[in-house]
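Lecture notes, continued. The same structure-token format from the folding unit now serves as the input rather than the output. Read the line below as a description of shape only.
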């Protein structure tokens, strides 16, 4: 049965990919590819925001960055999940775009990602980008379990930068050493973004905004050439969001959009859920919802964010398993645990692998009484509810399969808004165990 399902999936992917290639050949849209190990979806959405007021544009929905997600975006059709009728409709819609003339976006913003070797280099190399945005390429990237080494993951994820031809543009993160020094072909233009002094699009004076001593968002200044602008993004926290916004602005100016136009677009920007979003919690608490996924570098950044929050109560870190780390799992969970004592007053872990996080915290001086270990998201939620009090700031983070968004829903002040505020709250995900 599994073999039949895999054959059907491969057939559908083959058909949709062929249609997507034909659509791009016919309509010839400009393509912006977003790649990297961390921050792709936030950057993809920021690029869309920065360009949407100037161009007819389409972006990848959610995190559709795979061999099937990218063709779906090109064709402008939804994920059919387990519904064969929807997949047939998608194939027919693709044929319609090819055989008939229809309005089609002038720009596509496509997020691409790699879970296994060849996901990008073999499955998506048919895309010919105008711009490639490289976010971050950390020392131990997510999905490293399925590669021979971390360097092989980085090679896979940075491959789209080698697809650029003379006249194309690479938009690179100046705050990431591997991104800023990537090798490019002759004739490819480069524009950098970040908080480093030599970034072309430079962020400055980053601040966490607050109300009644609780975080409400972020703000910072942007400089490009001799121009300056100011950006405020409510409802999120962390410099990673500022970097995503800077990546969008850099992509905009790279294609000729004035700085003021690009920055003004972020007045109505809505960052994706599950990425250090600020969610009001029960009993006067604040939740930092970082439940979309987890990796060592993302967990490290999340803990830094927690540490920077103005102190009104306790800082509580809820950290679940980081998956797909292979032989790096024990050392990386332990390393993240060792960072916790400087960032949080209480640690609650969820999952078998996260026991090493708890051990790392205790070994680094955190009192055993404030390190609580649980096996499941529901247990973690119960543990937090029993101790949370007014003024606490609670970071919740874990890999997708740990389903830590369920913890956030248990803690949030208005759970009726979960569908709008939290990640993985569509019908398909809710039906999963």
């Amino acid at each position: 049965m599994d073999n039949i399902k895999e054959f059907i999936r491969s057939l559908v992917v083959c058909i949709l990919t062929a249609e997507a290639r034909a659509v791009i050949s016919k309509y010839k849209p400009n393509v912006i590819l977003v790649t990297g190990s961390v921050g792709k979806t936030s950057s993809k959405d920021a690029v869309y925001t920065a360009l949407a007021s100037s161009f007819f544009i389409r972006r990848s929905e959610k995190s559709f960055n795979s061999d099937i997600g990218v063709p779906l975006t090109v064709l402008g059709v939804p994920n059919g999940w387990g519904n064969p009728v929807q997949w047939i409709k998608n194939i027919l819609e693709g044929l319609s775009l090819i055989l008939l003339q229809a309005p089609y976006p002038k720009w596509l913003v496509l997020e691409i990602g790699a879970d296994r070797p060849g996901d990008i280099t073999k499955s998506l190399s048919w895309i010919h980008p105008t711009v490639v945005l490289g976010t971050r390429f950390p020392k131990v990237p997510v999905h490293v379990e399925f590669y021979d080494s971390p360097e092989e993951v980085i090679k896979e994820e940075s491959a789209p930068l080698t697809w650029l031809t003379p006249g194309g543009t690479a938009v690179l993160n100046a705050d990431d050493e591997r991104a800023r020094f990537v090798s490019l072909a002759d004739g490819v233009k480069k524009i950098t973004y970040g908080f480093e002094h030599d970034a072309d699009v430079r962020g400055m004076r980053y601040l966490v905004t607050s109300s009644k001593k609780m975080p409400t968002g972020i703000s910072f200044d942007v400089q490009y050439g001799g121009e300056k602008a100011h950006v405020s993004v409510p409802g999120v926290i962390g410099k990673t969001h500022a970097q995503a916004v800077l990546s969008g602005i850099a992509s905009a100016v790279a294609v000729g959009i004035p700085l003021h136009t690009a920055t003004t677009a972020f007045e109505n920007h809505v960052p994706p859920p599950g990425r250090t979003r600020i969610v009001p919690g029960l009993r006067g608490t604040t939740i930092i919802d970082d439940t979309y996924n987890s990796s060592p570098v993302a967990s490290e950044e999340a803990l830094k964010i927690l540490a920077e929050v103005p102190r009104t109560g306790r800082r509580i870190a809820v950290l679940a398993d980081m998956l797909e780390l292979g032989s790096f799992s024990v050392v990386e969970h332990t390393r993240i645990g060792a960072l916790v004592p400087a960032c949080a007053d209480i640690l609650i872990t969820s999952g078998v692998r996260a026991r090493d996080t708890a051990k790392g915290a205790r070994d680094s001086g955190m009192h055993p009484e404030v390190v609580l270990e649980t096996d499941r998201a529901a247990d973690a939620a119960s543990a937090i509810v029993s101790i949370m009090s007014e003024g606490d700031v609670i970071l919740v983070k874990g890999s997708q399969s740990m389903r830590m968004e369920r913890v956030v829903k248990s803690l949030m002040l208005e759970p009726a808004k979960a569908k709008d505020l939290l990640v993985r709250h569509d019908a398909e995900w809710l039906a999963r165990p």
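Point for the exam: The chain has 15 helices and 15 strands.
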